[in-house]
Amino acid sequence: MQSRMKRTLYLLALGVFGIATTEFGVIGILPQIASHFQITADKAGWLLSAFALVIAVFGPFMTLLFSGVDRKKAMVFVLMIFTISNILSALATNFPLLLFARILPAFLHPVFWSIALSAAAGAVPAADSPKAVGIVFGGFTIASVLGVPLSTFIADVFNWQASFALCAIVNGFSLLGLCLWLSPMPVSVKATFGDQVKILKKPVLWIQLLLACLMVSAMYASYGYLAVYLNSITGMNGREISVMLLIFGIAGVGGNWLAGKMLSRNIPLTTIVFILLLSLAHLLLYIAGGFFIPMVMVIIVWGFIHTGGFLISNINVTSAAPESPEFVNSIFTSCGNLAVTIGATLGGMTIARAGVQYVAYTSIILLGLAGVVWGFSTFKYIEKKGTATEKK
Q1: N or C: which end of the chain has fewer CB within 10 A?
Q2: % of the chain with per-residue pLDDT over 70
Q3: Residue among 257, 229, 258, 291 nearest 27 (CA)
Q4: How many structural domains compose the chain?
């Protein structure tokens, strides 16, 4: 890749780092927020799931609304709103106000994601697009490595308000980076609404969206309550949990890199290997949950596998409709965040009705359903390919 192209990709990754830290940084501080406002863990979980639900509902519409705006200006505006919302979150005096401040930037989240991912894929030859998208997704991975555990650590040392202040600083730096070093990205040709929504008629797209929804739901049914699990089942304190989240994220850097490399070779095989290995990781989570040292090992394995899930899901969905990259990325963003909502809600229901220790089985069941959909989609692909060969 050329140096200018790499700079663009890393700047996009920097922006993703900012918004991902905001969205998922709350995962590690849910116990403190629940305690502060005297609410249950599953109610506190709405800080994650409501954010994702707004993205899921409004994602494609917001992306279409911004489709004619210079891409740099749109992304700078998004990061400005994220910075302001984190300041409001830090100042919130009650849970409804905190929830409102959290939801505010969610409307614009898919605008940044769809632009960043489509720009990354379009900046390189088609064969290298998974690697380019993987670099941008690296911002999400680094947010897991640094943003999420650092937010947890700051909350433990100071308070949960300081965690949101940290997120405001992170988004502020991301905003500054894009303002100073990202070149203008004007839209040369604005596709019409009708041209973009044509992709919704493709059955293969809906199959891949269902597969992505099940995979991401499985990921966040357990990961969304990781801090709660480590606190309640493993008996870890706030600082130990922040270290575990850091280890989880560091392992994920390697997993994200390997997923991008494997996707460039074989997308269906990478997908089913991910489903099987993540199922095994959740089984180990249930077995080793009450033991400190074995849980450290599980966290490493789980983190390595987990982090590639978003990248794998994205490549599956966008490959189904390459003719409309930004719109399909916005649909994927909506799908992914709907899946986060579903996963967090199902995980919360499991915790409320059966106990925290059984949340891993929620993920395993969802992954089993994902495996069924993968089998159906792969069979249909082979059948279609065979029919095309016979016609020739």
Answers
A1: C
A2: 90
A3: 229
A4: 1
